[in-house]
């Protein structure tokens, strides 16, 4: 069997054509509909401009077309963005790291699903990403994303997906590894491709940010967001009870700037 260890981001470029197959179990429609309901409840969806962070091949963007948004997507991987452009031709796509987003008061809605916010590593980079998102949102704009509690990653089981394409059998395996302390959450990925010619296997590893829900909530508040934490349920708005390790954050940019401490209206 041929085995290859690839650098960060390279695996997604090499096998980007299979990415949607590997994510076949993800309910993109449900998550996109949830984001629309969030914007309807916390902001205004009329004529909205929406940005999907870590948009990948544009699966969420494709579903969001139904809501009439002006769509933008950001991803670091050009191969993924190429597919997203085919899928959503009218979307404006940005090749960039999330922490390098550099726009001002453009978006009514920013979304980031599939726990991709954790790719902003280390915590200093995560803080920068949140600052850039706040800057990018219009007053009253909404940022919705999901996150996992650091300790919860210790009990997460590996995700294994198998697909068949002609004679090829492909297996995708992903698993988080957390050491129980520190701010690094390792994501291990293995993809196996097997056919009559033999077997190839790719291994990839990403460093993601390990953080508690409480710490993330505090950073969002310090950044300037008004924060709501919900249970990880895309079917309803259920306030987080403080026990589950997977949550959804709704972070709103205030309509007006909050005065600094000690500042008084003149």
From TrEMBL:
The keyword Cytoplasm does not apply. This is Methyltransferase domain-containing protein. Residues 51-141 form the Methyltransferase domain. GO terms for biological process: methylation. SUPFAM superfamilies: S-adenosyl-L-methionine-dependent methyltransferases (SSF53335). Gene3D superfamilies: CAC2371-like domains (2.20.130.10), Vaccinia Virus protein VP39 (3.40.50.150). One of its GO terms (molecular function) is methyltransferase activity.
